[in-house]
């Protein structure tokens, strides 16, 4: 069998140590979130945005529990698709929510690509025409696609190297930014209209996007040494590291820019905050980190997303068309993923991409917790109050976010609802058809057996 036709997935058990797993998690988490979401969160909830990051960390900490208990019970590289399948079986909730996760991951890719474009253009005085950001973003996705075709070893090597540089660079930015600032005191007492509960919950929902990369660790379950102990520990450590880094960066930005400046520069607020603190060299340094972070994130993301869709295809939960393409299913899903990412990057701006991502992700997250609470609680020995609390917190954040967007950009909520209805209807028809085909195949073989 030729290697490009091999449809099996190879995993190396015990190949990831605890520090290596933590690096993987933080590397994915510290992506576009911190570079692009800071400004969007400030626009939504004013000076309270550093607190919204902390609120997001609290919600994610409750959310992580469900993922930890499932991966402890069944360490697997199957990730979210496998978790949903354990809870709901070969039914619509599994396929629907797995596809929501797939789309939220593709959306995260486009988010990384546009952030790359926004920061890169700061080296050339910004993007007045509005054309260069999507062009640069699409170019990055296509470059990542070519590297993904070259093989796994190169992806992992490049992503790990970039991850170390990125985390070190952001830490330096945060520490120096706070050190140089005239004052690190942020006045939380006068948030104004932006400080309403709905706005704060909406900003918290956006903050969750900056932490959701922890799910990558659960996808590596079967490759982690002593996974029943280390997957949970790696998730907790990764979230804690990100809380420290995000808080530092939040205060560095808030201390060096006024609220109006943060909102005006929302797509590249870290680069803007570096200018008063560190001058042009600071801007170049920040842009270089942002370019590395987004490029590394896209490399890893395209690989993980296409692998997830290939797994759903093999589980016969989604339809698959070869379109006369050669190679394995994962190569085909890589093409679909890249095409979808390119379309989103070309036609949607950063705030709309983020909005779609958070709606899809939170609905899928609620389905995971409900699955643990309703179907898997005894199997995974879960404490019922933790996933129940996670559901309430997710719904609060989602409700606040939808409320804000209905008042400011109802179009994006409309797109999210129409997309979800389309996914549900298409999946319902596909599952009905494939179930019918399986039954008729079973009857044919039964009849043949009795002849």
From TrEMBL:
Transmembrane segments: 21-42, 48-70, 91-112, 132-151, 158-180, 200-219, 231-254, 283-310, 331-348, 354-373, 385-404, 410-431
Superkingdom per UniProt: Bacteria
Keyword Ion transport tagged: no
Chief location: membrane
Location(s) in or outside the cell: Cell membrane
UniProt membrane topology term: Multi-pass membrane protein
Keywords, ordered alphabetically: Cell membrane, Membrane, Transmembrane, Transmembrane helix
Protein name as annotated: Amino acid permease
Organism: Marinobacter zhanjiangensis
